[in-house]
From TrEMBL:
Short name of one Pfam family: GerE
Coiled coil: none
PANTHER family, sorted: DNA-BINDING TRANSCRIPTIONAL ACTIVATOR DEVR_DOSR (PTHR44688:SF16)
Protein name: Helix-turn-helix transcriptional regulator
Organism placement in taxonomy: Bacteria, Bacillati, Actinomycetota, Actinomycetes, Kitasatosporales
Key words of the record: DNA-binding, Transcription, Transcription regulation
Gene3D superfamilies per record: Winged helix-like DNA-binding domain superfamily/Winged helix DNA-binding domain
InterPro entries linked: Sig_transdc_resp-reg_C-effctor, Tscrpt_reg_LuxR_C, WH-like_DNA-bd_sf
Organism for this UniProt entry: Streptomyces johnsoniae
Amino acid sequence: MAGGGGEREHGPALSGAERRVAVLVREGCTNREISERLFITQSTVGQHLTRIYRKMQVNRRADLVRRLQLVPAE
């Protein structure tokens, strides 16, 4: 699927910004490190994470990391 926000095998597709944040979370970055690398505020990182958690159906960062390890990198 090219672009868009359709459904995927593992739930709703993440936006480009959400994917960038998710990759850095998977690498072990803190919200502060993510904000510095992506040149966005920590608040924006938190907003992306909230949407990622909802889409990935997780409640904690550790659960997100485990879930992301099951999803092939794009």
